[in-house]
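Notebook p. 47: complex prediction with S-adenosyl-L-homocysteine.
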Amino acid sequence: MGFNASILTLYPDMFPGHLEYSMAGRAIERGDLNIEAINIRNYALDKHHTVDDTPSGGGAGMVLKADVLARAIDALPDDNRPRLLMSPRGETLTQQRVRELSSGEGVVIVCGRFEGVDQRVIDGRELEEVSIGDYILSGGEPAALTLLDAITRLLPGVMGNVESGTYESFENNLLEHPHYTRPQEFEGQMIPEVLLSGNHKLIADWRHKRSMELTTKRRPDLLTRINDKKDQK
Ligand code: SAH
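Predicted complex, structure tokens below:
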């Protein structure tokens, strides 16, 4: 079966983009990941295939037309996949949401362009707005590729070392510990000795401690999330 992503975009050639490479590329080859990019412009009915118009009320830029986008959405199979709209106004993507999405059958992703899309199609088709961070891209496509990248590495069978998924940054609301590899000495800096000790318990303790230190220093907000979770239990 595989995970089915349908992307609605004005630039279908941007897909699968970088997902053609490495782990995601192999997932596509195996059929574990299917990416279908659909050109929204195909659903514009007028002679010039118009997809945008000037904002009602005035102002700069153009707005993606509700009727055209709605037709593109309605042409999709009627299934239960979440319908997402990449949008800086959405809730910021988290590893937890990525994990939820990756455990489903797929996603529909609408990529905005210009000033954005007509509000009535967001409401009428119940699109969930998803942001990838507090900055503005010129279009939803790189955001969609980012989301799909994060989803893909969690799909069953995609990541070579299954364990490596569960200790990454954010998985436990902690930033990951530092990594080292040979040579033992680099420009006078040594690999921390405990990592060469072969004592798994000591190594795990050391890593956890470094994780806590890093998180406390750089992202104390993540620690608050752990405590909130504990409180809910
Ligand atoms: N005028 C809008 C920004 C439009 S940017 C505003 O101020 O909210 C054009 C398109 O790029 C958006 O419709 C969205 O699909 C995409 N986009 C821009 N920044 C994004 C972000 N941080 N996350 C997800 N999508 C983004």
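Notes: The longest strand covers residues 83-92. The CA atoms of residues 168 and 176 lie 6 Å apart.
Next step: compare against the earlier run before touching the bench.
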